[in-house]
């Protein structure tokens, strides 16, 4: 009997080897998932998940641009103007290789909040703008057209509008993809189409 | 000692059972998509969607799997195509975008485990590397979704993504003759033309014209050349092929795109080792050829498993398109099946070679385990060693699933037509392989309408 046990014990080595091989063949990832709240674990906002724009990127580019606007001559002019200048915010053009439309909407909303909090201009509501865009574009069912922006401005009776565009240089190599974003913000005078303020900010994202 | 013999028998039985179970459980990617393909063959897209959703373990076609990684990315691509065929363009967009990112990440990821898995267990253990035509078609077909929904900005994003991939293929992979660029060029040219980006539109049309003459583009190209700065001999020749009739401002453009049939998918096949060595000649190293021949001569291993291309279907259908009852001339813009075969021919030898190498490795691993078992088994060592060797080989053979992964719901061919219509209400009817779409629409002055049909049977 004890000899049998010894034989079995000796067999354990090759059996373990076979087991490892079989387990390797079956190598399948099994792991539970957890949902994490940003307020409990702030670091989750730091990691870059893709080459798209995330909250961190948006805030960085916006802060840079809006801080520049804060000190710009047009802002000083607005501060002293009475009655307050009427301003509209129009969508930013996306000329990148990423679907960042929802992020651009977030940029618009953040800019809107910033201007309202600054209390130096009278801001036109986005709902009114959308109705007017539909009116101007007629058959095109209210789809915003960057080329018609001056016309929108005149129709709304605004003196200035804030707009911008996000461009990108997207490059791909064998083991990496890099997207360099350039966010331009502008304040344009409706009557003359003159650019009274412009600033740009950069963000680069990479997958490697 | 009788107990030891019983133990050996148990190990043998376990190996046979385990191997059978394993073989039954892992039929490879083509087995996972069999129900989907069968449903598409029957023209039942909803059943095909349900089959993919089941494989993805999601409850509805609007839901993405928790992680779009590995083979799931391919299933999401399959689902994107089916959603496009049932005109669920927004769902299709979301699936294409998710799969696009996942395929890109797979392509960029480096993992030594993948390489080890490929050389020890199975080609399907490695990460999926999408062939160039698949990478290009993700963006081209998603562009079609955006054009269908009138979203030029989204279509241009896809066009730019396509350009990034085209540049990568040209500069890094040294491949600039992929026929799928024609479809991408026609759609991207249209998106930029309708956005008023004249030179960009011309550049994309020029790319498309490198693969064929498309008379339907002639009037548009002539007008674009008149107001743009970009030009080329191909564009000029096409513009000159049409009359000088000035563009009527009271018209709109209709673009019709029809895909029909399905590309050949990969199937698992067993071939005799001799034939495999012939097919993989030039890809297998000398010592491996000698080892494989020795095994074959001993009658130990006579067959190997590896993937092959199944026949395609629906390539020779005749799609039709009518606008207000009048037939529209359609031109072929993509022979996807031909591109799939071309891509396969490039890698076939390498795939068979790695299958042969794995077969030799399996035999060597089995022999090593058998030798340890023989030494440990005492008086019955030979019997135990043989059984353990067989068990090891069975487990590894079972794990060696031929890599049958590919984007299976691509249309075999794609045709397009373009017509200028007076502004107002019109009726379009398109059909292919028994699938049809009929729709009334209003075209505005200077506006456009894109109508597509993907008959994936």
- The percent range for helix content of chain A is 40-55%
Question: How far apart, in Å, are the first and last alpha carbons of chain A?
Answer: 60 Å
Low-pLDDT residue intervals, each spanning 5 or more residues of chain B: 16-25
Order of helices and strands of chain B: HHHHHHHHHHHHHEEHHEEEEHHEEEE
Shape assignment of chain B: elongated
Helix-strand pattern of chain A: HHHEEHEHHEEE
Radius of gyration of chain B, CA atoms, in whole angstroms: 27 Å
Strand content of chain B: 15-25%
Fraction in helix of chain B: 55-70%
Strand content of chain A: 15-25%
- The total count of strands of chain A amounts to 6
Average residue pLDDT of chain A: 81
Shape of chain A: globular
Could you explain the architecture of this structure?
The complex is a heterodimer of chains A (208) and B (457). Chain A has 208 residues and is α/β, with parallel strands linked by helices. Chain A has six helices and six strands, in the order H-H-H-E-E-H-E-H-H-E-E-E. In chain A, strands 1, 2, 3, 4, 5 and 6 form a six-stranded mixed beta sheet that branches. The longest helix of chain A has 24 residues. Chain A is globular and about 55 Å long. The N and C termini of chain A lie far apart (60 Å). About 3% of the residues of chain A have low confidence. Chain B is of the alpha+beta class and 457 residues long. In chain B, 56% of the residues lie in helices and 16% in strands. Chain B is built from 17 helices and ten strands. Chain B has a four-stranded mixed beta sheet. In chain B, strand 8 and strand 9 form a beta hairpin. In chain B, helix 10 runs antiparallel to helix 11, helix 11 packs across helix 12 and helix 15 crosses helix 16. Chain B is elongated. The N and C termini of chain B lie far apart (62 Å). About 2% of the residues of chain B have low confidence.
């Amino acid at each position: 009997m004890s000899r049998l046990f010894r034989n079995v014990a000796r067999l354990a080595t090759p059996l373990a080897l076979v087991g490892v091989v079989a387990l390797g063949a079956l190598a399948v990832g099994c792991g539970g998932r957890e949902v994490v709240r940003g307020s409990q674990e702030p670091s989750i906002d730091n990691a870059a998940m893709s080459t798209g724009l995330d909250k961190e990127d948006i805030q960085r580019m916006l802060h840079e641009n809006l801080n520049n606007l804060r000190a710009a001559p047009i802002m000083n002019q607005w501060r002293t103007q009475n009655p307050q200048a009427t301003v509209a915010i129009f969508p930013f053009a996306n000329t990148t290789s990423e679907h960042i439309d929802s992020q651009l909407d977030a940029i618009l909303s953040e800019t809107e909040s910033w201007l309202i909090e600054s209390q130096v201009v009278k801001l036109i509501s986005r709902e009114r703008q959308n109705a007017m865009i539909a009116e101007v574009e007629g058959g095109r069912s209210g789809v915003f057209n960057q080329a018609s922006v001056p016309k929108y401005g005149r129709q709304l009776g605004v003196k200035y509008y804030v707009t911008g565009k996000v461009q990108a240089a997207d490059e791909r190599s064998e083991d990496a993809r890099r997207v360099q974003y350039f966010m331009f913000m502008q304040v344009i005078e409706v009557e003359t189409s003159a650019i009274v303020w412009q600033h740009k900010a950069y963000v680069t994202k990479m997958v490697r | 000692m009788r107990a030891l013999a019983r133990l050996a028998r148990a190990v043998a039985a376990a190996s046979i059972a385990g191997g059978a179970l394993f073989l039954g459980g892992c039929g490879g990617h083509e087995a996972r998509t069999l129900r989907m393909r069968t449903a598409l063959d029957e023209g039942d897209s909803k059943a095909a969607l349900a089959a993919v959703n089941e494989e993805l373990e999601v409850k509805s076609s609007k839901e993405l799997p928790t992680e779009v990684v590995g083979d799931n990315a391919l299933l999401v691509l399959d689902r994107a195509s089916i959603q496009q065929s049932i005109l669920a363009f927004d769902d299709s967009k979301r699936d294409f975008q998710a799969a696009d990112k996942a395929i890109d990440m797979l392509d960029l990821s480096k993992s030594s485990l993948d390489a080890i898995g490929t050389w020890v267990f199975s080609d399907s253990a490695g990460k999926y590397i999408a062939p160039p035509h698949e990478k290009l078609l993700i963006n081209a077909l998603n562009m079609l979704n955006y054009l269908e929904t009138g979203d030029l900005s989204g279509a241009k994003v896809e066009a730019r993504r396509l350009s990034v991939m085209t540049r990568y293929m040209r500069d890094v992979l040294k491949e600039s003759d992929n026929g799928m660029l024609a479809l991408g060029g026609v759609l991207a040219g249209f998106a930029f033309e309708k956005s008023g980006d004249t030179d960009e539109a011309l550049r994309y049309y020029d790319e498309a014209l490198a693969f064929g003459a498309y008379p339907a583009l002639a009037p548009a190209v002539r007008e674009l050349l008149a107001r743009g700065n970009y030009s080329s001999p191909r564009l000029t020749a096409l513009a000159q092929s049409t009359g000088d009739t000035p563009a009527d401002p009271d018209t709109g453009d209709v673009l019709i795109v029809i895909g029909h049939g399905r590309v050949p998918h990969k199937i698992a096949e067993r071939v005799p080792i001799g034939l495999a060595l012939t097919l993989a000649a030039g890809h297998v190293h000398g010592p491996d050829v000698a080892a494989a021949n020795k095994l074959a001569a001993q009658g130990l291993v006579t067959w190997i498993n590896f993937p092959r291309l199944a026949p395609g279907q629906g390539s020779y259908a005749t799609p039709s398109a009518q606008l207000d009852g009048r037939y529209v001339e359609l031109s072929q813009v993509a022979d996807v099946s031909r591109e799939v075969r071309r891509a396969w021919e490039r890698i076939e030898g390498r795939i068979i070679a790695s299958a042969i190498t794995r077969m030799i490795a399996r035999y060597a691993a089995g022999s090593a385990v058998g030798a340890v078992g023989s030494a440990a088994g005492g008086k019955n060592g030979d019997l135990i060693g043989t059984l353990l060797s067989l068990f090891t080989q069975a487990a590894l053979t079972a794990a060696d699933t031929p890599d049958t992964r590919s984007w299976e719901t691509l249309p075999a061919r794609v045709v397009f037509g373009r017509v200028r219509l007076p502004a107002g209400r019109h009726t379009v009817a398109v059909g292919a392989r028994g699938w049809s779409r009929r729709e009334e629409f209003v075209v505005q002055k200077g506006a456009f309408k894109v109508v597509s049909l993907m008959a994936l049977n």
